[in-house]
Amino acid sequence: MRLAQVSAGVLLSSGVAVILALWGTAGCQPPEARKVLPTKVEVDRQRPPSQEEAEVPASTPAAVRSYLEQALAAMTQNQPALLERARRSRVRAKGTMLLPDDNGQLVRQNAERDMAAQWPDRIRLHYQAQPPLSLQLTFLYVKGRLWLTRNQITQAATEAAMIDEAPTDTLAQHWLPLLFVIQEPGVVAFDLRPAQGQPPRDRLRVKIPDRPIYYLSFDAQSRLLRQVEYRYQPLGTGRPITREWTFDQHQPFEGLLLPTRMIYAERLDSPPVREVKMDWTVERWEFPQEFPPELFEAKETPQ
Q1: Cα–Cα distance between 191 and 96 in angstroms, integer?
Q2: According to the model, what pLDDT value does residue 14 have?
Q3: Closest to 250 (Cα-Cα) out of 228, 277, 222
Q4: Residue 302 pLDDT more than 90?
Q5: What is the mean pLDDT of the chain?
Q6: CA triplet 67, 255, 143: central angle to 5 degrees?
Q7: Could you tell me which CATH number the domain at 8-44+51-286 has?
């Protein structure tokens, strides 16, 4: 099997890269070549901190802190104590995502998505494609280890740079939308810019230790979070990509106003291109007191 450059962030956001790069497509590889994942994915090492990170202040400015208190009040409906339950959360959704057909062409397919996460080091993301596809994909991250499953075949990822991107992308699509992260030690929010663009959005940046800078956009009126994005430099390639999660149609779930529409897109600056990779309608958000232990247990397939 040909090894390919791939990132866990792409895996978690779209699921497409792992199918195309790690297993290949149905029309281009014999069955025996698609049984298991490679034990190692060849990628470059992490790049040094960006120039942008040099702009991060030592702590969150008072004006930004005041703004975030308003955003927290909006999401919790003035019950900030509810934030604690968001550390253990699950969201189930149905929608569409780009997946390869039998000829290896990327097409928009109906799918289901189930994401469970326990801050800060347990993540399980499961995709179930709908007929005519019978594809199931599961990404499991536990305390610095990552396992990838296609249907019933599971194997651990071993490249550190790839594994490290799993929590990076989960922050964008899951933990930051729950907002409790902005109160964690070492997290700095800064560069608040009110009423940017149309419709007007209040934008700010957030730096989390050992993660890239995230851009958060809030509705200028309701203070509800509308978008999270971050810049990603593909390992071993040239042009940087902006990964963008957009949130809409907020509804109450156990006291928290959370999105029921979630759209993932990727953007290139030059040439300017934006492509929607996923479009999800949330069925429910859940905040269990405990997860079943087996939910975060990996069972590797013998080679």
Answers
A1: 34
A2: 53
A3: 222
A4: no
A5: 86
A6: 80
A7: 2.50.20.10
- 48 confidence band (pLDDT: 50, 70, 90): low
**What's the pLDDT tens digit per position in 167-222?**
999 999 999 999 999 999 999 999 999 998 889 999 999 999 999 999 999 999 99
Give dist(CA 266, CA 245) in Å, integer: 9
Largest CA distance in the chain: 60
Domain boundaries, the chain: 8-44+51-286
Judged against a pLDDT cut of 60, whether residue 43 lies above it is answered with no
Please name every residue paired with 106 in a beta bridge, in sequence order, or none if there are none: 100
State both tokens at 280: 């999800």
Residue 174 tokens read as: 């899951």
**What pTM value is reported for the model?**
0.86
236-279 pLDDT, tens digit each:
666 889 999 999 999 999 999 999 999 999 999 888 999 999 99
User: How would you write the chain as a 3-class SS string?
Assistant: CCCCCCCHHHHHHCCHHHHHHHHCCCCCCCHHHHCCCCCCCCCCCCCCCCHHHHHCCCCCCHHHHHHHHHHHHHHHCCCHHHHHHHHEEEEEEEEEEEEECCCCCEEEEEEEEEEEEECCCEEEEEEEECCCCCCEEEEEEECCEEEEEECCEEEECCCHHHHHHHHHHHHHHHHHHHCHHHHCCCCEEEEEEEEECCCCEEEEEEECCCCCEEEEEEECCCCCEEEEEEEECCCCCCCCEEEEEEEEEEEEECCEEEEEEEEEEEEECCCCEEEEEEEEEEEEEECCCCCCHHHHCCCCCCC
For residue 34, what pLDDT is reported?
A: 37
